[in-house]
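Q: what does this look like with zinc ion bound?
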Amino acid sequence: MPCYRCGARQTDPVRGASPWQRGVRHETQVLICPDCQRLHDLDLDSCSTCGSSALICRLGEVECRSCGAVRQARSDALTAPAGTPPPGLSAEVEAALNRVLGRA
Ligand SMILES: [Zn+2]
Ligand SMILES: [Zn+2]
């Protein structure tokens, strides 16, 4: 996964932990390269509990790696959950019922 901001490709660290930072932006897991980490306009999502931007996003949840707080990812960033009828279906069902019941 390249840096979300500049598109740089991650290279294997010579030793130790990768200097690349993981974060969450608009409910999406992103990677930030060491150069872009120095900027202050990264526009990352931050923890509502402690303000940290060290978040990980998985399975529709966003977890803070600093304080451990977990919140649901915003639903408007996700596809509709299974089982939710598409818009307009209830109107069709109602129209069909009205036909069956002779109320059309
Ligand atoms: Zn970058
Ligand atoms: Zn936190």
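The first strand starts at residue 21 and ends at 25. The mean pLDDT is 84.
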